[in-house]
Amino acid sequence: MRIHHLNCGTMRPMGGRLVNGGGSLLGFARMVCHCLLIESEQGLVLVDTGLGVADTTTHVEQLERNWLRLARPVLDVAETAAAHVERLGYRTEDVRHIVLTHLDRDHAGGLPDFPQAQVHVHDVEYQAMLDSPERARYLGHQWQHGPQWNIHGSAGGERWFGFEAVRDLPGMPPEILLVPLPGHTRGHTGVAVRQVDGRWLLHAGDAYFFHSEMADRAHCSPGLRLFQNLVQVDGTLRRRNQARLHDLVTAHRDQIEVFCAHDPVELARYQASEYTVDA
Ligand SMILES: [Zn+2]
Question: How high does pLDDT run on average in the chain?
Answer without folding.
Answer: 92
